Amino acid sequence: MKRTMFALAILILVVALGLTARSLAPVQAEPTVIDLEWISEATGYLATLEPFSDDCFLDEVYQVYLCEAPREPVALAADPEARAQAVALAQAGQALLIPDSAAMVIMVFDATTGDLIDPSFITLDDDATGTVIHAISGPDGQILVSDQTRNVVHQYAANGSYLGVFAPAGGANSAIMQNIRGMALRPNGNLLVTVGAGFNADAIAEFDTDGNFLGNFVLNALGGLASPFDVYRRVDTDWLVSSINSNQILRYALETGAFIDELASIISFPQQILEAANGNVLVANFSGTQTGIVELSSTGALVGVYDTPGVSSYRGIYELPNGNLLVSTTGGVHEITRNGALVETKYEGSTRFIEPVTLPPLLLRKTVGLDPAMCATTDEIAVGPYTPVTYCFEVRNTGEVTLGLHDLVDSQIGVLFEGLPVSLMPNASVFITHTALITETTVNTATWTAYNPGPTDLVEATDSATVTVVPPSIALTKTVGLDPTVCAMTDSITVGPNTAVTYCFEVTNTSLTTFGLHDLVDSQIGVLFKELPVSLMPNASVFVTHTALITETTVNTATWTSYNAGPINLVDDTDTATVTVAFRTWLPLIRRP
């Protein structure tokens, strides 16, 4: 069915994905079948003119009813052989995850052949889950799944067990996310999520590795962003975002999320984005005059549009090693050529984004902190020298086999244990801590090896932690004045002979080391104190005063030394003050003749 460009433009504006005050104006005319398809795809609900269940609700923006999309959960018997093959491919980085949002499963396909390996690698939790769009590897070896209608990112263990909501931490929050679709991980492990509606609409939200909301990586409507559907990282280049209400692929800076420019316009519903082996950009376009896979040059010039007869409503894209394209649609997963020929239909169903996945069989997380009673949450810390720090080594079995023996070796600490008998079941974790005295900046890598007697089933994982040692330092300020009750503001003064002046010696700890002992020696006054027991914490200051009778011009230098018992952490600083003595000059008396 052909539509005029005018009607198409109206439709693009109509699909505002709102349900909030941020949405655009409501549809004036009764929606057509194509309009309903657009609204359904954009919102994740089934758009209808009449409600057919108690779950339907009237959307005042579109003047249609939005209902929970019909689902047909599969009840496939577990196939241990298929799962073992899928796990082996995932651990080798040769697996693709593709959700079927109607069948409520995450499937595994072979990244080399495009063939279906396991049709029910993960069976989604039916009560917790709405319309799923994207499944990716999480920062800690789990699988993250975006839920368009429940407005959360779920997390599943590699063995398929449901772990709950990952983001936002604490559960759904409409002030943060509503109508979410594509996701990506930043190199630091933070999660980026497209937000299409709600109070935070038209943004890319960012979450840390525990699912805590950090703010928007791409700000609301930045660069004309209107209802983002996917966010994709071109290594060392930019982030590409498909914007369905503005029909654009937009570019944002890798580190800051700042807007760069428009890569290209797409007519008229761009979904998943992929960088091809030749450096071109592939976009799965759901509908419009460019329905199919749109190929762009790296700078956005149109190379071609690949639309295969019998295949429609494109959602996901992956390039196979043979150069053919694996596409996901409302009707299934298909292998097509760049000439638009159908090679093979791999699967029939309502399939979504296609994502390569790597699942480590063992995951080690090494952190470092100051509290010996608990595991820290970061793998970097800055301390003063001779500071005891506590390393935490937490290992998780992300494989399918229970592991009974364990070795742990650290590049600086050495062997922590060998052959430790601990039964580590799939998806279980254990941890140990080790406290060490650090004297210099240290980067150390730990290797945890888990296995069974034989040895068999041997797997290992590594992780690093950094302790940056900040040298101890103090800053001494010496001033001189006349008031013995306060510290003066200057380090020089002019007085008459036999004047009592008050020196003030103020020291500030400008490092991360706490000092417990102090010496103060003045070049004119002598030793003011030695081994004074005062705890001087980082950024803290202390001062002492001394009053002296000055008879002549005096320039004296003080040296303050701070340290700890040993002595260790010894550091000093000096400062000088000047007292100028002005003598009265008597003029000779001259008699008049």
Mind sketching the topology for me?
Blueprint: H1 5-14, H2 33-43, E1 46-48, E2 57-59, E3 64-67, H3 80-91, E4 95-100, E5 105-110, E6 116-123, E7 132-137, E8 143-147, E9 152-156, E10 162-167, E11 180-185, E12 191-195, E13 203-207, E14 213-218, E15 228-234, E16 238-243, E17 248-252, E18 259-265, E19 270-275, E20 281-285, E21 292-296, E22 302-306, E23 314-319, E24 325-329, E25 332-336, E26 342-348, E27 355-357, E28 362-369, E29 380-383, E30 387-397, E31 403-410, E32 414-424, E33 429-438, E34 442-452, E35 456-469, E36 474-481, E37 492-495, E38 499-509, E39 515-522, E40 526-536, E41 541-550, E42 554-564, E43 568-581
Parallel strand pairs: 29-35, 37-43
Antiparallel strand pairs: 1-3, 2-3, 4-5, 4-27, 5-6, 7-8, 8-9, 9-10, 11-12, 12-13, 13-14, 15-16, 16-17, 17-18, 19-20, 20-21, 21-22, 23-24, 24-25, 25-26, 28-30, 30-33, 31-32, 31-34, 34-35, 36-38, 38-41, 39-40, 39-42, 42-43
Describe this structure in words.
The protein is mainly β and 593 residues long. Among the domains are: 5-67, no CATH class; 136-158 and 165-265, TolB, C-terminal domain (Neuraminidase), CATH 2.120.10.30; 362-469, Immunoglobulin-like (Sandwich), CATH 2.60.40; 474-581, Immunoglobulin-like (Sandwich), CATH 2.60.40.10. It has three helices and 43 strands. The strands form eleven sheets. A five-stranded mixed β-sheet has the order 29-35-34-31-32, with no helix packed on it. The chain has a five-stranded mixed β-sheet with strand order 37-43-42-39-40, with no helix packed on it. Strand 23 (314-319) and strand 24 form a beta hairpin. It is elongated.
